[in-house]
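Any chance you'd type out a single protein's sequence alongside its tokenized fold?
>
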Amino acid sequence: MFFVSSCFLLLMITFGSQLSFGVFFKVIANEFGFSRALVSGIISASLIIYGISSLLSGRLTDKWGAFPVVLSGLVCGSLGYLLITTARSFLELYIYYGLGIGLCVASSYAPISATISKVFPEKKEKMLSFAFLGIPFGQLFLPPFLATLIEKFGWRMTSFGLSVLLWLFSLPILFQLWKYRKLHFRIKEKRTGKFGLVFLRNPSLWMLLITGLVISAGFHFLSIHIVPYATDLGMPLSLAALTLSFSNLGSLLGTFSAWYLVKQFGHKKALIIFMCLDLIGISLLPFFKNPWSIFPLMFIFGFGFGGTSPIRTAMVPQIFGIQNVGTILGYLSLFWAIGGISGPILAGYVFDITKSYNIAFLSGGFLVVIGIAALTLLYGHSNKP
């Protein structure tokens, strides 16, 4: 369990800090005079790098193991947060955040997920759920913590603090990955045949790609824009940041319950249940104008989102086998990034044109419906673990 706990800490700091960008949003927009669509592009730049480099990090994990991949990503991430403190232009923000943090996050998800699947082949759903708890846990506590730091010390000093925290939370997993490096080479020696692009013909893969894209679009849209939306309704920044915490509290519980629902209903039905909760949370936001209604809706959305990631990740070795799981996860990360890129930018563009998020909320719900349809029609593999 120490290995899974170390994975928990890594995912908590890498994803938690990246997905807390919403608390930096209006501060950066006001200082540089950017539109919301333009500021959304900063996180989108990070996701572009994340998606592209995930293909490489997944493949390198299958080839060399997770240790060198994760270590390289941590170096990039710490430098990114450090250099952001010196940014004086739009281009510098895009380069430092996009390249540094994008490479860091890409070097954590696929390598960690692949390694857990190899270390615990019979208990991967449960162990992935426990490790993935780090993501909502980080999102639960980091946004209000960072918002407080921003109000007291400014966003630049807060970014410097993140560069230090990144290393402190990541040291345990580096020791563990070094310890388990021999397991990777034992599995690698058992491979037979060549791994080509034939897996792209598998309908179940396209189900995973489509569901990942639509879930990511809605999730990143809300992660970036829900705090500005709440402040538009009159909430102070420190209170608005708690909307992310409610979403992340729901995500924490959803992630924890994922393995149990898979055990009871199988992968397909469990994933449909969680996606329906996503649909409810995002689609009802335009119909409740009381600022306090945001909290329960974000909790519902977060609960649904939290259960989707460990289930989709556990489907990969079940469908494609254990040997090339890192490579497949790299493709899933690419489509995840495409959704994450398009969601915030389109939502920001809709707001800039209409001065409202209503159309964006409803569009996010429609995308979830598309994902549920893809899951229903394309998933042909047995849905029992």
Observations:
- The radius of gyration is 19 Å.
